[in-house]
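Quiz preparation item.
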């Protein structure tokens, strides 16, 4: 079941565009967030008002902001799956949906529940 070459090239183009969009969105915003965190830390350091003061709060918020920025940059740098991997993931997702549908569509009547309850009662010795 080989796919036509045009379909594979189309998937590769879509993947390349998705990589570019993700890199553009997350990397630049992550760098901006890191810069904002550095500004918060610098403001906190210049206050010099004591340990339990706005200085400590600004430095803590700056550190948290820098960590969030680093995570955004890493998300931007990690590339998505290849088209072949995406096909395997979608096939496994379809199998999982089918198995859920089979379980959901299975009808249990009140009579079946009563039988199960009686069997359970008998096995407990009640």
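Solution:
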């Amino acid at each position: 079941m080989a796919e036509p070459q045009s379909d594979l090239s189309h998937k590769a183009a879509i993947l390349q565009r998705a990589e570019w969009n993700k890199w553009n969105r997350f990397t630049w915003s992550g760098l901006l967030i890191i810069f904002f965190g550095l500004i918060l830390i610098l403001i906190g350091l210049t206050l010099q008002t004591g340990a339990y003061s706005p200085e400590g709060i600004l430095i803590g918020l700056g550190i948290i902001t820098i960590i969030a920025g680093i995570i955004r940059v890493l998300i931007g740098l990690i590339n998505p799956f290849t088209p072949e991997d995406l096909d395997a993931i979608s096939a496994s997702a379809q199998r999982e949906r089918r198995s859920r549908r089979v379980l959901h569509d299975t009808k249990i009547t009140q009579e079946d529940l009563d039988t199960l309850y009686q069997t359970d009662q008998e096995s407990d010795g009640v």
